[in-house]
Amino acid sequence: MRVRFWGVRGALAATEACFQRVGGNTPCVEIRDQDNELLILDAGIGLYWLGRQLLTGPHGRGQGSVTLLFSHSHWDHIQGFPFFVPAFIPGNKVRVFGGGVDRLEDTLEGQMDPTYSPLVSLSNLGANVDIGALEDNPLLEVGQLRITHATFPNGPHQVVGYRIEEADKSVCYICEVDHPNEALRQQVVDLARGCDLLIHESFYTDAEVGAAPGLAGKLGPPPSGHSTFGQATSVALEAGVKRLLYFYHHPDRDDDAIDAAIKEQRARVAALGSALEVDTAREGTEFEI
Ligand SMILES: [Zn+2]
Questions:
Q1: All structural domains of the chain
Q2: What separation in Å is there between the alpha carbon of 249 and the centre of ligand 1?
Q3: Is the whole model's pTM more than 0.85, yes or no?
Q4: How far is the CA of 77 from the centre of ligand 1 (A)?
């Protein structure tokens, strides 16, 4: 299984130079099985750049297929979908899944409305787009990939976390989730248990929780709907994960600030004598699992 990052930023794209070592596009992750079958997690702005690369292969000839999974439908997770050029090409097959299928379809249709987009309607996309219900598909298969999921409450809405397995390898994707109580935290740990790679949101630092809204503070009042570097590390330690990549970075947090946060987490992991590897997800980097 291969994992490649196309967007690692949370909330809104960050284009200044100080963000470019880690990356400024909103969330999008490409996963390939051993036969090169394609799974995509979330459709932030990074999806546009992934779509451009796909055009050089079967997707550029109308012979490609893709399965796209949404963690949820907040704007930063869907805004790349109307710009996913392979979806315009007849012959391509695009399978889409997310929680609450009626609402997801309504949401994706809504962002094509002429108020927001010249596309007007999903029906104007040239590819065959099929939107399915996770509720009806507790186990999804994409080539050799087997995908299970868990749904977490997140403020007034819900988010879906995914676990992707191929043979004895596993990747877990958790974006976004708050940790308001032990029961919810334990659900996150259970989904991530023993995985080779955990991609976990770390929108805040521990010090920022409880800080006033604004720069290096919360974007809004609690519940934040987000977790911290420290919470992500705690989940990885308890779940016995091999490698943790921090993901969905706050648009105020530049490359140097992310480096500092990682240094702090590495010191904590080392003090515990754990073999857990921690780093940030960076756009353009690829991992062979
Ligand atoms: Zn969200």
A1: 2-13+23-288 (3.60.15.10)
A2: 12
A3: yes
A4: 7
